[in-house]
Design brief:
This protein is an alpha/beta fold. It is built from three helices and nine strands; from the N terminus they run βββαββββββαα.
């Protein structure tokens, strides 16, 4: 009969209301369970089991300690044979909690006279270890599957890092290409504008060279205005040149 353990409430829980409960198998199950539940108080101590002949040992007695008790399934009539010597340490109490109200309990103790396993106990223990081996195999398969997934994620991460690096290099190439094109356009446009301005200045200066010989009313005023226009155009030309240089410097100042 399989058993479970409730460490917080100090309960040993047989999983069936009828059948055979092997005390030795129950103790073995507890030893397995406690390996992963060391925070709970000890449930058993044992005495006996020493050999007295080649064929027989002193019977083993299993004592419940620290207020641990056996609790039968709820809402069930209990009819169980208990194979083995199970006692409460100190001998002042029963190992079993009462069944639920309205239900019957028939627990028959089959006292062990030596420490040899009965056939029923042997099958119970073998089933227990077979199940543990199956559980272990399933866990190992699960761990292997998880390792495979982790390795897949690592590979995917490496691929992503490679793509990110390529994209960064690609973007830098595009940016530099665009900046070169912008700078070239700025240089071309600047040259065209300055050439146009210089052409206009030359034409105005050509007109100014003839102004003193002209006998035109208010020629002096016209001459002064044209000189002012020339000066303004020259300032505009200088400003455009400065703006173009500033755009170039700021643009390439951002390139690493």
């Amino acid at each position: 009969m399989d058993v479970m353990f409730d460490g917080a409430n100090k309960l040993i829980l047989p999983q069936e209301p009828t059948g055979v409960l092997s005390v030795k198998a129950m103790y073995s199950s507890w030893k397995e369970w406690v390996l992963d539940n060391m925070e709970y108080e000890q449930a058993f101590i044992t005495v006996g089991g020493d050999p007295i002949t080649a064929e027989n040992n002193i019977p083993t007695y299993y004592y419940l300690i620290n207020d641990w008790r056996i609790k039968w399934p709820s809402n069930s009539n209990i009819a169980v044979e208990v194979h083995g010597n199970i006692l409460v340490y100190g001998g002042l109490d029963t190992p079993y909690l009462p069944v639920d109200s309205g239900y019957s309990s028939t627990v028959t103790s089959v006292v062990a006279t030596n420490d040899k396993l009965t056939e029923e106990e042997l099958h119970s223990m073998l089933d227990n270890y077979i199940n543990k081996d199956m559980w272990k195999a399933n866990v190992e398969d699960g761990v292997a599957a998880i390792d495979g997934k982790v390795n897949g994620l690592v590979t995917a991460t490496d691929v992503i890092d490679s793509k990110v690096t390529q994209l960064r290099n690609y973007d830098d190439t595009i940016i530099n290409s665009k900046l070169d094109a912008i700078t070239s356009d700025i240089s071309i446009n600047k040259t065209d504008v300055i050439n146009d301005i210089n052409g206009a200045i030359d034409k105005i200066n050509n007109v100014l060279s003839y102004m003193p010989a002209l006998d035109v009313t208010n020629s002096g005023s016209i001459y002064s205005k044209l000189v002012g226009i020339v000066n303004d155009i020259q300032e505009v030309s200088t400003g455009i040149d400065n703006i173009a240089d500033d755009v170039y410097n700021k643009t390439f100042g951002r390139v690493v």
